[in-house]
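Design a sequence for this backbone.
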């Protein structure tokens, strides 16, 4: 028997496996929708059931191919709105274009805001996302945004993975200190910070380490691992400063370009990621451990549907 009769869970092609895990957590089946392409490349969408008066959730991270997945999301929102869905929530485990959240030089676009406008104008009435790259992106939307955090899941993993008596959490840069402090407090271990400068995009130069890492097992945490340069270089520096073992974890395994080779060749013992972004077969190396974000998103969906606090998940 379906417990939540008025919920409908849809997915595009971005991460159908995660959508299936979420619907399984909710004790229901995915709603019927087919997303394909016409011969000219335009997206073809077919919703296979009535959504009139339903509380609809679209599971669609805007990961690679970013533009295709974004258009699928917008078209599905539009279709559900025109079919008289009661409420449409865009569930974005990974929010693409989030790193373009301000003007760093003249004539730069603020693409994170543009995407927020598109999602809102398409007809979404709520957004659910995980570990936005910048917290202020919540303010780019004129609709409610529920911002989930993967840190409790990562914390539970390491609590079960190792003895924490010689562990230190390390922020790979100054900007990630708040995130790292949250994990350190959860694990009841000290915090260290890698102070670096970035001479140009995707190139990081390590300066020095603030804190004691000698003879410690270090856990680096970031929201995104993209090309892997920062994490690999950080791990090497930590070992040079006397760490005896280095782990890394992140919410979003973008893993573009040379990332997999860099992680494979690095001194890292293990890289723990969540499944906000699906990992292609060629990226599933032995060093990478994936944990599911589905229970967290599923519980948030239940709370949104029943109009109870989502923030209580992190108290």
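Sequence:
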């Amino acid at each position: 028997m379906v417990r939540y009769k008025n919920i409908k869970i849809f997915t595009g092609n971005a991460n159908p496996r995660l959508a299936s895990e979420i619907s399984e957590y909710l004790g229901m089946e995915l709603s019927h929708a087919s997303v394909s392409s016409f011969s000219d490349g335009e997206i073809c969408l077919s919703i296979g059931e009535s959504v009139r008066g339903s509380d609809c959730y679209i599971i669609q991270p805007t990961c690679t191919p970013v533009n295709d997945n974004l258009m699928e999301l917008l078209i599905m929102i539009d279709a559900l709105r025109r079919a008289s869905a009661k409420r449409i929530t865009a569930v974005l485990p990974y929010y693409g274009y989030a790193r373009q959240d301000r003007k760093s030089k003249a004539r730069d676009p603020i693409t994170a805001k543009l995407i927020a406008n598109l999602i809102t104008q398409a007809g979404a009435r709520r957004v659910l996302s995980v570990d936005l790259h910048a917290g202020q992106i919540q303010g780019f939307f004129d609709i409610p945004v529920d911002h989930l955090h993967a840190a409790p899941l990562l914390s539970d993993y390491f609590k079960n993975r190792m003895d924490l008596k010689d562990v230190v959490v390390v922020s790979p840069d100054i900007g990630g200190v708040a995130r790292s402090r949250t994990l350190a407090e959860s694990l009841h271990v000290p915090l260290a910070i890698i102070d670096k400068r970035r001479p140009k995009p995707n190139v990081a130069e390590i300066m020095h380490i603030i804190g004691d890492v000698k003879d410690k097992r270090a856990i680096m945490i970031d929201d995104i691992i993209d090309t892997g340069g920062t994490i690999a270089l950080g791990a090497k520096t930590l070992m040079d400063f006397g760490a005896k073992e280095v782990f890394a974890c992140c919410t979003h395994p973008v893993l573009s370009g040379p990332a997999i080779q860099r992680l494979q060749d690095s001194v890292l013992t293990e890289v723990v990621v969540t499944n906000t972004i699906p990992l292609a077969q060629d990226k599933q190396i032995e060093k990478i451990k994936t944990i599911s974000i589905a229970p967290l998103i599923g519980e948030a969906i239940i709370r949104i549907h029943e109009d109870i606090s989502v923030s209580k998940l992190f108290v």
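The CA atoms of residues 127 and 145 lie 5 Å apart.
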